Each structure stands twice: as structure tokens, then as C-alpha cells.
Amino acid sequence: MKTLHSKFFCCGALFLGLLMWPINAGAVILTVGAPPVLSISASVGVIVLEFPNFLPGTDSNSEQVVYTVQSNTMAAGTINGAISAALSDDFEHVDFKGDVDSYSNLGDPSFASLAESSGGFVTIATTTTDLADKTPGTGQGDICIDGTLTITWKGTLNSVMPAGTDAQILTLTIVDGQ
After folding, report:
1. CA distance between the termini of the chain
2. Which of 20, 25, 53, 151 has the most CB atoms around it within 10 Å of its CB?
3. 112: buried, middle or exposed (CB in 10 Å: 19+, 13-18, 0-12)?
4. Structural domain range at position 81
């Protein structure tokens, strides 16, 4: 019985001693977050289109380009024209065209996706042309896109083309619908 009493006394003294010692505690606010992302980047920097002759109606070779598309800032729901294209200047003898081949989701299955705005090749000029629309995901994933968009580019001669080359800048734009 004496042993039990001394154990209780030691525990009580330890507890009382802890209460009497000054205790300093610090608190910090922990913030986590991800930066806003809205990007499209190409697998190539130059697209070279060559024609087998100079006659109107002739198609060039086709060039397939894979674009990496990422965003965590998309508006919910459908966004028409989420991906669009425009040339810096019109080609004098060529109708430049693009066709969305496919979109592959690399992210979570709940993420939104991209679908071709209109079937087949569409002519790209200096005014913005819609190529792909955002289709809704599910839940929180609806505001996110993470995937690859494959587009095939080609040219069609609209008049007799004299010998020589011409170059323009092709700009693809992603909009978040906000």
C-alpha cells in the first residue's frame, strides 16, 4: 500500500511541476496553393508545307503537331472556342488550314476535355478561328485541363503560285472563359 501511495505522489508532483513551468508555444499560419496555369505549347517550332506544283487547288503536304494544353482556371461548363488560331498575315496564294485530330487526357478522369469545334479542315486567316471547344468535366475537375491536342496543318493553293517562299506566324490561343 505504501508503494502505491508513493507512485501517486510522484505523478502528482510531476504534473504540478509542469503546470508551474512557463510554456511558450508558437503558432504559424500554413497556406498551400497552386499557381494559376493557362498554357498551350507545341511539339515543334516550325511547320514546313511544300506543294508538288504551282497550280490552284493543289494541296501541300500535311504536318501534324502535338500541343500540350494545361489549365486550372477554366470556367465551368462548355467553352466554345477554347482553342483558336490566327495568322500574323494572310498568305498571298495559299489557304492555310487546320484540322483537330484528337485530344488525349493526361490528367484525372474528372478533368474537362477538348473537342473539335467543326469537323474537318478549317481555313485559318488573320481573324481568330475556333479549333476546339472545352467540354465539361465532373466536379472540381471541370475547371482543369491536362492533355495533348493533335492538329494537322496543310495548305491549298487558291491561285497560281510563283516560285519562292512565304512565312507567317501562326498563333494558337487558349481562353479560360472567365
Report:
1. 77
2. 151
3. buried
4. 35-174
Q: How many whole angstroms separate alpha carbon 11 and alpha carbon 74?
A: 60
Residue 13 has pLDDT above 70, yes or no: no
Q: Tell me: the pLDDT tens digits for 106-126?
A: 999 999 999 999 999 999 999
Classify residue 12: in a domain, yes or no: no
Residues facing residue 71 across a β-bridge: 38, 145
In-domain check, residue 3:
no
Best CA proximity match to 163, nearest among 88, 56, 51, 48: 51
Residue with cell 481555313: 123
Structural domain tally of the chain? 1
Cell numbers at 92, concatenated: 498571298
* Domain CATH number, residue 164: 2.60.40
Report d(CA 146, CA 70) in Å as an integer.
4
